[in-house]
Amino acid sequence: MSGSPLPLVFDAPARGKAPKHWLDLTPDERRETAEKLGLPRYRADQISRHVFDRLEDDATHFTDLPAAIREDLAEQIFPSLLERVTTRTADKGATVKTLWKLHDGSLLESVLMRYPNRSTLCISSQAGCGMACPFCATGQGGLKRNLSQAEITIQALAANQMLTRGEVPGTTGRLNNIVFMGMGEPLANYRAVLGSIRTLLAPSPDGFGMSARGITVSTVGLVPQIRKLTEEELPLTLAVSLHAPDDELRDEIVPVNNRWKVAEVVDAAWDYARTTKRRVSIEYAMMRDINDQVSRAHLLADILKRRGDWGWVHVNLIPLNPTPGSKWTASRKEDERAFVATLERRGVPVTLRDTRGSEIDGACGQLAATVEAS
């Protein structure tokens, strides 16, 4: 290490692909990469401790590494992945929405939320979304591309940096929960999402050491991928964005239902709960005069009950955060109350979600759409 440049270990990224990053690698690949750079294998653990223990991703500041190689390391294995475009806050600073720009100009959003006893990050898995749900700003913008494993994981690193720097009032700790409910359909980017999750779960020095029970993966109902996730036998929380209990309506508002019907989706969710022993969350966005009728509350109870007792499932009702100019809007409060009361009478575990961030384009895709339009 006399100052000569390190060997190149990664090829230039293909068009539309993110540059390779340390966070794309498995622990074994990190050690192999260290060797290819002419470094002892133990250097890989040193580098990883900077990232996962100290939350540092600027290799020029890795002072326990030889000064002569730090700049090369920064260029080769720690390329810049995210550039902050804008940050908006709500709830007296407890909700922070960040719009990021990727290396190719694509935009993505993440939302950091502090609650009294925890901090939760809503994370994006794609730039845009290909599921085309008409009430969703991201879905209406279409899919730009999948995010790389590192582009997903680095959102968690950035959020932890914000927390430990005290940028969110009331906490200097780390993330307790991550929900894959931001831009994109996580199970349509299965490999990168699972790679990111394994990094989030791995203990130091290989990852952030989070609990699997603190990670939620959302899907609109990609049945083969739900079954594949079931086979992983990771005790993650699965959240199914159902939004309608009958195929006639769901075909319209969740177009993927034309491929996998409500019964197939609920069956796959039930198998997931039975295998992992983790309760599934049924996400249901309440839309005025669309899906919020008492009759549909009964239909929802019927289809969930057929899979067994109520221990396997919890219904999470979400007041729709409407997109400006859209015909899709939030239910009336009296209709929300009637829907909840119907499910409760049927014995269905149900929660009406606390809404956050409506004044900062809080729903996924809204801020990106606003910035792109301008």
Could you give a short description of this structure?
This protein is an alpha/beta fold and 374 residues long. 35% of the residues lie in helices and 18% in strands.
Describe what you observe in this structure:
With 374 residues, the chain is α/β, with parallel strands linked by helices. The protein folds into two domains: 22-77, DNA polymerase, domain 1 (Orthogonal Bundle); 91-373, Aldolase class I (TIM Barrel, Alpha-Beta Barrel), CATH 3.20.20.70. 35% of the residues lie in helices and 18% in strands. It contains twelve helices and twelve strands. The chain has helices spanning 27-36, 42-52, 67-77, 137-141, 149-164, 190-201, 223-232, 247-253, 262-276, 294-305, 333-345, 366-373, and strands at residues 83-90, 95-101, 107-115, 118-122, 126-128, 143-146, 177-180, 215-219, 237-241, 280-286, 313-319, 350-352. The protein has a ten-stranded mixed β-sheet with strand order 1-2-3-4-7-8-9-10-11-12, covered by helices on one side. Helix 1 crosses helix 2, helix 7 (223-232) packs parallel to helix 9 (262-276) and helix 10 runs parallel beside helix 11. GO terms for molecular function: 4 iron, 4 sulfur cluster binding; metal ion binding; rRNA (adenine(2503)-C2-)-methyltransferase activity; rRNA binding; tRNA (adenine(37)-C2)-methyltransferase activity; tRNA binding.
